[in-house]
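Handout, page 2. Input:
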Amino acid sequence: MKPVCRLLLVSAFALILARPLAISGQWNRKPYTEWSEKEAMKLLNDSPWGQTHTFTDMSKSFSTGPGSNPTARTTPSADASVRNVHIRVRFLSARPVREAFARMIELNQKGKIPEQFAAQLATFVARGFNDYVVVAVDCDSAESKEELQQVRALLNNRTTADLKNNTYLQSGIQKVFLEDYQSPQSDGLGARLAFPRLVEGRPWLTSENVDIHFHSEMSATYKLDTRHKVRDMIYQGKLEY
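Output:
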């Protein structure tokens, strides 16, 4: 698989991808060039194509004696001693996800994007994924720098061999396993996990399927599991995944 193009501004994501969400997606109602920041972020982090796993570190709140579980997935808490790390799971091969990334760059740059770079962004948005489904996995945290560093180190150190037997996409009885893992690059998109789009020469997922399930055991602690309704992944009349 060809590497996903390394053209995005790292600084465009470092400060903005962890912002809270408070708006319903309106993505099919107007061009992505008119999306607000909240709409673009909603698509990336809480939409048919992007979901968030929140892992909560409560080790500073409780003693860590025998039998304790200092790092566990829970719901967010207002307790200042509870520190959340968010792992973002996004279908990078879905055009609306790439549009949302491009829109965030445009908004961050306040419209002052050089013509050549704007052309590169347009190419990134329009590129096809005929042979692979690509899931991007990234992380952020406004509270827990220590655990965030651990997750980033995990993403940087994983390999295809580590993940190929416990990372897959599934719809109904059809399951396809990971073919290639790329650790995060310098473009701010996160790690890339590539799966075959075709089985016996045909797409294994169509609009007739009910859902698509992504599962990956990054480690004993960080197990990712998301489900996406296929009917909600129709974008501009086409199934995007």
